[in-house]
Amino acid sequence: MCEYFSASDDDAAVRVLDQPGGPHRSAFDVVPLKGFDPVVVMARLEAVLTGCTYEEASERPRSGQVLSSPEAESAFILSVSDSLQEALASASHTSLIDAAGRWAETDELRQFGVAPETALEALVQLGGLADRARSAGFRLFCWWAL
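Request: output the structure for the sequence above.
Response:
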């Protein structure tokens, strides 16, 4: 299970682990996206949105960086790169439609049968989250439960 959310900083994001069940909607802006992992799938998305390679996207600062203890057994907090957050926040609906089709063609999304319409729905939700986070001066994170 992956839940993307915004928080003021890394410490605030990691404190989500103190509460069972992930980020509470009463305290955080949350977008649940089952199966959209914060490491490979988000780096693929960044490559699609920004025109860089997957390797470049995956090496950017904060791209899928584990912020919580890597020894945790049930859930982790990972960061989303600032460049992906900005690309999502500034993308037009037309560019999201185009990106959704290309993102759905990646091996990771095809493997799980994600249709372009489902990818677009996820992009619209992530884009809204990223835009609201940018407006508040927050960053994006993922609570990833195994």
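The helical segments are 10-14, 40-50, 54-59, 82-90, 93-104, 107-111, 116-136.
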